[in-house]
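hi!! sorry for the late reply, been swamped w classes. u asked for the two structures so here they r. pasted raw, havent cleaned anything up. first the sequence of the first protein and right below it the tokens
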Amino acid sequence: MSTLAITNNTITLGSTIYQIRNITSVGKYRLKPTYLFKIPFIIFCGFLGWLGFEWIKTNPDVSAYKWFTGIVIILSASGILERMTKTNKYGLAIETNSGGARLISSQDQGLIDSIINKIIEVMNNRDVPVNYTFNIPGGDIINQTGLFENGVRLG
């Protein structure tokens, strides 16, 4: 578990420290999930399943058609089920003057929103002393540089 600490002058994420005055942008993004079964493959399997049913209707005694159709339908259903059950992940990108960035991803959109709200509060009210701490699961911190427009930008 990593800790994100926000004070008046710094944001500390694990062993990396960002100065508040060097942050150029903070944004929340929805990250596109990666799917094992792509949509064209699912559509193709659906077509092959329909074709298999037609073969079974014309030749009900051939068991190879039944096996083929069953396997293709299972593949198609697995692809549809994967798309329905995969959860959305949201990311927080902290970009600095030097172009470096750090991305925190989480399924908890409320955590990302609360971190952004605290950073905004610190940036807008430099006179008020603050000290916020967030516990972030270790697998949710990703080192990444560059633009994060691969997903859909929400904020």
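now the second protein. again sequence first, tokens right under
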Amino acid sequence: MRIPVPLIVFVFGLLLTGLGLLAYFAFAVAEDRSWTAFIPAFWGVPIMVCAIASLFAQNVRKHAMHFVAMLALLGVLAPLGRLIPTSIKEGFTFDSKSFTQIAMCALCIGLLVVMVKSFISARRERKAAEA
């Protein structure tokens, strides 16, 4: 039994949203909280919306999934763009901020792998149907 890709995408969006909420409410002390802790949630919510849209509207699935792949790629690059320069300047410290950035990057890499495999599978199915 194959799990539909939009459901997998929805779970990744849910995990990213949960990571953002966890980073804001659980990792930071009330005085040190910053809205930037919600950044994973800013990625997760549109990913979940695209997953829901592609489940219920077949005609937008291709566009929604390509948008999710773009968000996943940016979700890999954005944390690295912050983590690497900070680590070079100040040295790497494993704290809640770096954990959140690493976790977001790992989730987005996983999502990107799922998306690429899905695109390859869809292309093979389309070519098989043409033949």
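hope this helps!! also noticed smth abt the second:
Helices lie at 5-27, 39-56, 61-90, 96-130.
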